[in-house]
Design brief:
single chain; 418 residues; alpha+beta; 4-stranded mixed β-sheet; 14 strands; globular
Length: 418
């Protein structure tokens, strides 16, 4: 069971970090929703607060009264059992509540949570403490979404503004030689280890046996330079490289390069980053590619994408070390001499997002958190450059639709021995 005082400190730290992420924004930036996949920063700040109010305070703090009678509707994301949610495509239309009002909402909920923590200090409740931990991991997910959404929102502005102009520009660091890790086949246990004691989402359980054949895993992510060779070999024009849905999608939307690449007018490239429009670096990992693009590149390279089980088996042997949000780069970096296993970019797997054998969702409305999305999406592993380090683990199952690419996603290849 969590220690209530340590969880209180963690709560305060994570809540403060969300506001720190938004500190560089101007008031106008809080309202933007450029595409349906993104949400305004103001909405993110309110939604994660709504989560604590709705799932924790309303149910567990005696005498608690809702902060505002309409907020339950405005800031509900997709929990159908909790009532009708405000339409996702229209979040950018909510000029009110204002940004100061949203921050006041956060402050009020934090004060109520502080009262609840006082009570937990005297009378710990394991179920309630676990629910608060879920809420904190939920907020960490939205911290990552804040970075993703801000980047996209700024990318469609012709001014190409920088979210932060003090982010380090590392220059060309040189790519690490690509090496391959051999992994013998056999029956492996995958999924969250309940004896480990750490937090996991319901979709990571139960731990179960899974057979793997011998395989090879690339020791780092695919680079911009390597992906450019695919483009220059007419990779986006060759239907034989693409899944049918991918071929239809790239031609419908005229995709010819990764998201955020822009021609520099002299035969080269620029790349939009959270630090603004910057020179394209050949040895940076290629980022913001869809599953369709990752799969086509792997086929062109004569390799394949790893399964999620292959990724987990390899990641379990590695320390959770890499380029995460705490490094302050907020952009994928070239691999180190130790390889590239966690951080930088979420790795696409070749595995569709589905329940593990014996999967049981959370009880009650929290059961809508993961399980109902187990359709038509693909699993990604490993975390990225805007993921909090303590939010990542080998068993973590991220998931996106195969055409999505505004998230920090990249390519780590696998293969079968000759």
């Amino acid at each position: 069971m969590q220690d209530p005082q340590r969880l209180r400190q963690r709560y305060q730290s994570i809540r403060a970090l969300s506001e720190h992420i938004c500190a560089p924004l101007e008031i106008e930036d809080y309202q933007i929703q450029s595409i349906v996949e993104t949400s305004p920063p103001k909405w993110h700040l309110a939604h994660v607060t709504w989560f604590f109010e709705t799932f924790v305070l309303t149910a567990y703090l005696d005498g608690y009264r809702p902060y505002h009678p309409v907020f339950e509707h405005l800031f509900n994301s997709y929990y159908e059992t909790l009532g009708n949610a405000y339409p996702r495509p229209k979040r950018g239309l909510l000029a009110r509540p204002t940004v100061p009002e949203v921050y006041a909402y956060r402050k009020a909920i934090d004060a109520a949570m502080d009262t609840l923590f006082d009570r937990l200090q005297q009378d710990p409740d394991a179920q309630l403490l676990a629910l608060i931990e879920l809420g904190l991991n939920h907020e960490q997910q939205h911290q990552e979404l804040l970075y993703m959404d801000i980047k996209y929102n700024f990318s469609v502005n012709p001014l190409r503004p920088a979210y932060r102009d003090d982010l380090p520009d590392r220059g060309d660091m040189g790519a690490t030689l690509l090496e391959w890790r051999e992994q013998p086949g056999g029956v492996y246990e995958i999924g969250h280890d309940p004896d480990g004691g750490a937090f996991c989402y319901d979709n990571e359980s139960p731990r179960h046996p899974h057979y793997l054949a011998d395989f090879l895993m690339a020791g780092r992510l695919v680079t911009n330079k390597e992906y450019l060779a695919f483009i220059e070999d007419e990779g986006y024009q060759r239907s034989d490289l693409w899944l049918a849905d991918g071929w239809t999608h790239i031609n419908r939307y005229d995709w010819r390069h990764p998201m955020y690449w822009e021609p520099d007018g002299e035969g080269g490239w620029l790349e939009m980053t959270l630090g603004g429009l910057r020179p394209w670096r050949p040895d940076d990992p290629v980022s913001h590619v869809s599953y369709f693009e990752a799969d086509a590149y792997a086929r062109w390279a004569g390799r394949r994408l790893p399964t999620e089980a292959e990724l987990e088996v390899v990641l379990e042997k590695m320390p959770v070390y890499g380029n995460f949000a705490e490094e302050g780069v907020l952009h994928p970096a070239p691999a180190t001499k130790d390889g590239q296993w966690f951080g930088d970019l979420w790795r696409w797997s070749a595995t569709a997002y589905h329940p593990y054998p014996g999967f049981r969702p959370y009880a009650g409305s929290a059961g809508e958190y993961n399980g109902k999305f187990m359709s038509n999406q693909m699993v990604l592993r490993g975390g990225c450059c805007v993921t909090p380090r303590d939010h990542v683990r080998a068993s973590y199952r991220n998931f996106f639709y195969p055409h999505d690419r505004w998230q920090f996603s990249g390519i780590q290849l696998a293969d079968s021995p000759a």
